[in-house]
Amino acid sequence: MTVKRIAAALVGIGLLASPGHARAEEITIGFTAALSGDFAAFGLNMRKGLDLAVAELNKKGGATYRIDAVDDRGEAREGVLIAQRFCSDKNVDVVMGYSFSSIALAAMPVFTECKLPVLASAVTSPALSNVSPYFRRNVLTDAVQGAMAGAYAARTLGLKSIYVLNQQDDYGIGIAKSFSEAAEKGGAKVVGSESYLLGAKDFRTLLTKVRAARPEAIFIGGFYTEAAKIAEQARALGIKAQILSTDGALNVDLVKLGRDAVEGMIVYGMFDPAVATPATEAFLSAYKAAYKEDPSAWAALGYDAGMTLGAAADLAAKDGPVTRESLNAAFGKLKDVPGVTGPTSFAPSGDRAGALYFLAVKDGKFGLAPKQP
């Protein structure tokens, strides 16, 4: 924050003390996510949403915002190195982004040490709840989302037998556990469960077990890349079960990769352009004008994170210069900041409350599933 610190120093010696002279504030966002590789869609979409928010905030006048973006390539070691870089750069006031919970978990001790606030938009592991007084996220946790999805499958859809597949990592394991517990509590039976490695391409051995169990539905606790392949190979093996998956599969690339095999598949998320409301119309129009495409849930969460930062910066500025500490304190005081994914407030754990939409693929596009909770 070079500009603001110079301004603060000048105030201290009386050079900017004249009435009506506005203090210049420059807020630097350290943005990090997987911006390349198989899972780049999450990070790139978050960045697009954040860019849109920053453009709007800069049009308002007052504080100016800039982004320093770094690709963590989905590697925990990179995440720690990037955290050290952001911490040592005194211009960086807040960190945003994060595609993977494991990378955020590895980085948080570094951010806690240097007291640099983090507002993440795509990391859902319950292990991040209460991880640090400097961590917050505007996406629901796996425990919350999995429980909502499990209850939806059993109670809303009335499914009685479900086979659970999940990727072998914190995200997949956590979501599968929460889903299974809620589904069984709702009256369904989990007739089998199997894990697979992220990046796997051949699921026929797993799916042969699924076919033998004859479930009404398959729940895939994983990302769009593997979910598309699982759906494609399941249909090729003659499995006609209803396929359900997560917000990690809510991506246009799911349809591009899975084509006809994902038709009828149901996923969940906190936002989709198919669910247009008066509160989202301006965002949808601005995003389409900027990028010539519809926004994903990750773009919407990135946008809301940016606008939440703007609200926190405005609140912090009421008491003096905007610093890492004053921003962090302001995040804790925010209440119901309006957004396209709903209002944002943070619990002391750093988590956010909210609701999910359930969406189905129909004619190659996501739309509201016929049955909602």
TrEMBL record:
Q: Does the keyword Hydrolase apply?
A: no
Q: Give the signal peptide as a residue range, or say none if absent.
A: 1-24
- Kindly give the Gene3D superfamilies that the UniProt entry links to this protein: 3.40.50.2300
All residue ranges annotated as the Leucine-binding protein domain in the record: 26-364
Keywords assigned by UniProt, alphabetized: Amino-acid transport, Signal, Transport
Specify the superkingdom. Answer: Bacteria
UniProt KW Lipoprotein keyword: no
Q: Which InterPro entries does the record match to this protein?
A: Leu-bd, Leu_Ile_Val-bd, Peripla_BP_I
Q: Which family does it belong to?
A: Belongs to the leucine-binding protein family.
PANTHER family membership: AMINO ACID BINDING PROTEIN, LEU/ILE/VAL-BINDING ABC TRANSPORTER SUBUNIT
What protein am I looking at?
A: ABC transporter substrate-binding protein
